[in-house]
Give the backbone structure.
Amino acid sequence: MGKIIYLDNAATTKTAPEVLDAMLPYFSEHYGNPSSIYGLAAESKMGVEQGRKQIAEVLGAKPEEIYFTAGGSEADNWALIATAEAYKNKGNHIITSKIEHHAILHTCEYLEKHGIEVTYLDVDENGVVKLEELKKAIRPTTILISVMFANNEIGTIQPIKEIGEIAHENGILFHTDAVQAFGQVPINVDEFHIDMLSSSGHKINGPKGIGFLYIRKGLKIRSFIHGGAQERKRRAGTENVPGIVGYGAAAKRAADTMEQRTKKEIELRDYLIERVLKEIPYTRLNGHRTNRLPNNANFSFQFIEGESLLIMLDGKGICASSGSACTSGSLDPSHVLLAIGLPHEIAHGSLRLTLSDETTKQDIDYVVDAIKGIVERLRSMSPLYEDFVKASKRS
């Protein structure tokens, strides 16, 4: 196969060379168990604490508030389930949104089977949570609000600071799934009134299999994984030392390059959006036009199937997605697109393109030209499109 143009960075990213270089010694040289007391183990422990410190600095948090997990899904599960358990004497009500990642939605479904009541907030046509509806949903028994920082499919960034303020004014804990936002937009846990935050290393050019849950000091959140006394007795299991070291290096890299990197991504993203909307008829942009992740563009093309579009793009060396990587095997339309009001037939014809700092304008031009040709070809085979054109001519 020739050149690959990778535009699925919301699903996963390439591990950066400097991140890999930081990790390698912890596979073969500093391989001791951080919980042991001899000198070899001390090197591993130092690596873990360095990674913890690097991540905390990006969030404006304390290192002791960072707890490592196997990824974002575990961190989401931990935040919701442990909160429900720890605060059950105060209440049994959780508020979330209809466009959360399935790591949140499926955990809420699990909790509902165990006596927890969940309110799923509607969003507007751009995918933004309605703050007035949030205020109305609060009950005396509400113990947690969990709203994602930025949506993994349509890229819309939520009014996190305002949500955090509402939560704290009402004495409610606030958790945000920041898997897509960490390292892409500035986040300060104190400024945004965040009590818990989930993230995953492989979204920011770090390794897979490592994530963290930020837990504000003083919260009664208990262990989710039981066993040893690792992570200050809150998350059992021998630490993934190379992963933690790599995650710390990736977090530092993301913070150091954020301003310049995201400026470039926004310019290319907007160029991509403008070309697609201008040159391909019967197309819509999903998500907020400007208040979205720097690298995210999500489109719906009428009269085509997104799966066919993806297959044909792959044939041209273009890696893209129809939405969340975790649901790519599903034939059902995206729950996010349905929540913002798209009918099933349009939601099925969706495409998510997520850029990286390696994406070029030439890449975007090649991709847009390819999409134009494929959409035209697919529509030419669509009876629905043929009927639409005939009806348009009659009118």
Observations:
- The chain has a mean pLDDT of 95.
- Residues 241-279 form the longest helix (39 residues).
- DSSP finds 14 helices and twelve strands in the chain.
